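Lab channel / #folding
Pinned by the channel admin:
"Please post every new chain as: sequence first, then the structure tokens as a reply. Keep commentary short and put observations after the output so the thread stays searchable."

First post following the new format, from NK:
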Amino acid sequence: MFGSVPAGAPVLTAAAMRVAEECAIAKGSSVTELMERAGTGVADWVHRLAAGSEVLILCGPGNNGGDGYVAARVLAQRGVAVRVVALGEPKTEAAGGARAAWSGPVESLSGGTAAAPVLVDALFGTGLARGLDPALAELVQRLVDQARLSIAVDLPSGVDTDDGADFGLALPNFDVTLALGALKPAHMLHPGAQHSGVVRLVEIGLGVVEAPVRTLARPALAAPGAQAHKYSRGMVAVVSGPMHGASELAARAAYRAGAGYVLLLTGGLPSTPHAIVRQRWSAEALDDTRIGAVVIGPGLGRDDRAREKLDAALASDRPLVIDGDALHLLDLAALRDRAAPVVLTPHTGEFEALFGAGPGSKIDRAQDAARRANAVVVFKGADTVIAAPDGRANVAAIGSSWLSVAGTGDVLAGAIAAQLAKGSWDLFGAVGAGVWLHGEAARILDRCFLADELADALPHAYERAR
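Reply from TO:
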């Protein structure tokens, strides 16, 4: 009950969550039983975290409010001082039953509502399709500010389930969000992820849920076997351009993420580390069948020379990681019939330059882009989404904001290429491993780091995945 969100957990939209609940009901559960489990699970967490402090529970008119009434009843039975404040009368049968089972007083939510050390928001959960009334948002903000600990039930009220939008309102950031039954996109996508704080999962009896979208799992990375050599560990080629530092970072990261041989195709001056093999660029260099992955884009430039290099890389039969400048030069038509794997690693600006702004959540847009490009797309950011052409997607846990420094994307490209070059697992899994290593290296460094240091932290991240 009190563990962290499991790796590889399903992420369900509001519609998918309704289907999962309907399936549970068809198998013998009732709405009331699901609510009882949800409210009891919330009470378990609040009882543990409140540490004897008074608890204020805000209950809305729907089933989210019903979960709040159940939690209040269970907490009171355990001797916790609980106040219940309602936005209005329950509008569902199950919520009405839960309120009737609560024997304590129910206050009306108003501007004069007194705060408490622990605040539980059970106003609105999954399925909210509009923003909060501004006055209500301001009231909830005040109560959160005055609380020692703030906990949201299922979702922070006012956050859209499927894309994490806050409808332009200044919503509070909760300390903890208790996801009921399954994670939702809003728990992983910004700004909803920021409003959610630490997310924990409360099981409500849905059973095994199949979903194409999941949280990114920690990869299982093994040390090289006794018979390993530099080529069996994976050879990565990095195509350089005028900004040599970017390609040097990608090459360094490939080594640090486990590659056995790194070839930097460059016209630049020799540099360290000396283990990186430097060779002048030629299209023929990509014909080496030992190359397991090619990185192109970091520091490439956007002139005719850069375009020639990208065309040569696309014409090769080597797996490609396309990043940075190359994304601005890329014609998607060149990817559709390409047999060898392709990974695209755009940040928001690069993504929109290549695919357009488009409707839907970040997950929806990444999935659509992967289908259109016939490539694995890593839509980078604090809420990185990895999408495959077959519809699968992984969402990485909230990334470190300290990654917002020049060169970290080059490091990511190298880390992904190192996993891809091994050829020991499927493309989607290899990309996920590279993304995980990159994020874990940032967590190890914590703050105020250079991209060079991020690359050098990759071995420590690798060790945590063994």
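NK: The chain is about 40% helix and 15% strand.
TO: also worth noting, The two ends are 25 Å apart (CA to CA).
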